[in-house]
Write a structure and sequence with these properties.
Elements (H helix, E strand, L loop, with lengths): L8 H32 L9 E2 L8 E2 H72 L2
Antiparallel strand pairs: 1-2
Length: 135
């Protein structure tokens, strides 16, 4: 846009003030729009992020979200510890039963060995008696 030719200095100053006034008005309008847009941006902090946790009706900010996550981790840790304890108790019972089963098997085997040794002794005596009798 070129500057028009003016007949007098008054016309030039009037035109210049009019353009300056329009520019200031334009800048004021743009500043209002920028301030309005900046007003929609949340301040730095936990409210910058909003997330609706499944099952909740409201949106949680970052602080509430991390609190929820860490609470769930804590709950799971407690459940895992409880489960580990219960599994340990069951394992102890299984091992006790296995030990007692092993003890029964070992005892049964020891008795079998003793009985077979005793029967061998009896058989040897019978063989001596039969040989003396000539049977």
């Amino acid at each position: 846009m070129e500057t028009p030719q003016f007949k007098s200095d008054e016309e030039f100053f009037a035109w210049t003030f009019k353009k300056i006034s329009e520019s200031i008005t334009n800048l004021a309008t743009r500043l209002e729009k920028v301030e309005e847009g900046m007003g929609k941006i949340p301040p730095p902090g936990p409210d910058m992020v909003k997330y609706r946790i499944p099952g909740n009706t409201h949106y949680s900010n970052l602080k509430e979200l991390f609190g929820h996550i860490f609470q769930r981790f804590s709950d799971y840790k407690g459940e895992i510890s409880d489960s580990e304890w219960r599994i340990g108790q069951r394992l102890d019972k299984v091992l006790e039963k296995q030990d007692s089963t092993l003890d029964e098997n070992a005892l049964h085997q020891m008795i079998s060995v003793e009985v077979s040794d005793y029967l061998e002794g009896i058989e040897q005596r019978l063989n001596k008696i039969e040989s003396k009798l000539g049977i």
